[in-house]
Every structure is written in C-alpha cells, then in structure tokens.
Automatic annotation (TrEMBL):
One of its GO terms (biological process) is cytosolic ribosome assembly. SUPFAM superfamilies: Mitochondrial glycoprotein MAM33-like (SSF54529). GO terms for cellular component: mitochondrial matrix. Pfam families: MAM33 (PF02330). It comes from Zygosaccharomyces bailii (strain CLIB 213 / ATCC 58445 / CBS 680 / BCRC 21525 / NBRC 1098 / NCYC 1416 / NRRL Y-2227). InterPro entries: MAM33 (IPR003428), MAM33_sf (IPR036561). This is ZYBA0S04-02718g1_1.
C-alpha cells in the first residue's frame, strides 16, 4: 500500500484516546450516524447500470466497425506464399503465437513461430533510413524497436535430430538476421511447450554470437535458411498474416468484453 493510500485509510479510523492504559474509541454523535441515506442507496446501482450499459454500447459499436472492415479475400495477401512454399497454418485460437509448418523433399519438417501481437505493433517507418533531425541515440532506439523475434525449427524425420534458429526480423527492410543456432537431439526437446522444457532450453549453450562464426559458415547457414523458405517473402507473409490474425483475436476479445457488459 502506498503512503498516500495509507494516509487516506487512516483518516477513516475512529480517533482513539487513552484512559488508564486502555484504548477507547471516540464515538461520533448518534444523530449524525442516523442521517437518512435512502437517496444515495437507491442511486448507486442505477449509476452502476448506466456505466455498464455505456461500456457495452461502445463495445457493440467497435465490433460493428471491425467486422464491417473485414474483407472476404483478406487472406489472399498471404495465401500465395503458403501455396508457393507449401506451408500450412497451424490454428492457435486465442494465442498470440502463430505457427506455420512445411515438409520438404529431403525429409525435414520446418516449423516457423512468431508473435503476431509483436509484429502487428512494430513501429514500422518506411523512411527510417532517411536523414532526420533525431539524435543518433533516438535513431538507434527506434531502429532497435523495429525487430520481431522469429524462431525456425527444422527436424529430420530419419533420426529426429533437430536444429533451432532464432532470428530477428526487420520489418522495414523485410530482412532476417540470425541471432543464434542451437542443435537438439530430438524434435520434442526443441518443440515441447511445457514450462520445464522451456527452462531447459534457456539453460542450454546456444553457441557463440552468429557474427563471430566463420564467414563461410555464416553464409552457408543463411543459404540453408533461404532454401527452406526463409526469404523476404516470408517477412511479407509474417507481416500480413500477423495483421489478419491480430484483428481476428481483437474481434474475439471485443465480443468477450461485450458478453460481460451486456
């Protein structure tokens, strides 16, 4: 409890006087306690109902605006990518995390994970690279905020050996930067969503910074990722799909709120 809150609370506690070592609460005049409060008692629930109804009406209006702005072919903006690279969307209703999966001719399963809320709320600025009056520090901070985390997990069907590649996606550039590469003995170790499995992954050695690797190794890993569909087209897909899914989840959230305030 803050000091100010404690101070306000203390004002409501009856004053105490000491008599022979005992505490005696000072009683307020009886007549003042019995002042009729009927009007206040009756108006409070009415006011509560009005406030609740007001919230409900605003939510109803917002739902109408959002649903009317939906376009039937909205998914076409990212469907071409799914068809071209044979990716499938894994439905994750009610979650920010999105996942797409594809199987390659080489017997690999490629999983791509990204946070739609993080992507949809990136401070995209097409003119970020242009000169401005901002200080160098301000430009650096704005540039850093323009990245989203993308995780690519590739599992071999033959022996279940798996590799997890943490990427940083720059929305304004449509480019990916490798942050770390971690091998796993099997797919479950890399994909298990339990809290225990996540802690184990956090404690693993993730290798040196990617930029510290041999340049030839860096280039070969980047080429490998590109062959698995990690391209500028993937960045464009992630952007459009994130906007689509985030809007769908927002409408569901509005309807859930409306259900409470109706």
């Amino acid at each position: 409890m803050s000091f100010r809150a404690a101070l306000r609370l203390s004002r409501n506690i009856p004053r105490v006087s000491r008599v022979s070592g005992c505490r005696v609460a000072t009683i307020q005049p009886f007549a003042r306690i019995l002042i009729p409060q009927t009007r206040t008692f009756m108006s409070t629930p009415i006011k509560f109902d009005e406030r609740s109804k007001n919230v409900g009406e605003i939510l109803k209006s917002e739902i109408s605006v959002e649903t009317e702005s939906e376009v039937d072919d909205q998914s076409k903006s990212f469907q071409e990518f799914l068809d071209k690279y044979d990716f499938s969307v894994i439905e994750t209703p009610g979650k920010n995390l999105a996942e797409i999966v594809r199987k390659t001719a080489d017997g690999e399963t490629v999983h791509v994970f990204f946070d739609v809320a993080q992507v949809a709320n990136l401070p995209y600025d097409a003119a970020m690279g242009e000169a401005s009056k901002e200080t160098e520090d301000e430009q650096y901070n704005a540039y850093g905020e323009n990245f989203a985390n993308v995780n690519v997990v590739v599992a071999k069907e033959a022996d279940q050996s798996t590799i997890s590649i943490e990427l940083l996606m720059n929305l304004s550039e449509g480019a990916f930067y490798v942050d770390s590469v971690t091998p796993f003995a099997n797919a479950d170790a890399a994909l298990n969503e339990s809290a225990e499995a996540e802690v184990k992954r956090e404690l693993l050695y993730h290798g040196p910074p990617f930029s510290n690797l041999d340049e030839e190794l860096q280039e070969s890993l980047e080429a490998y990722l590109e062959s698995r569909g990690v391209t500028e087209e993937l960045a464009a897909f992630i952007e459009s799909f994130s906007e689509f899914k985030e809007n769908q989840e927002y409408i569901k959230w509005l309807k859930g709120m409306k259900s409470f305030f109706s």
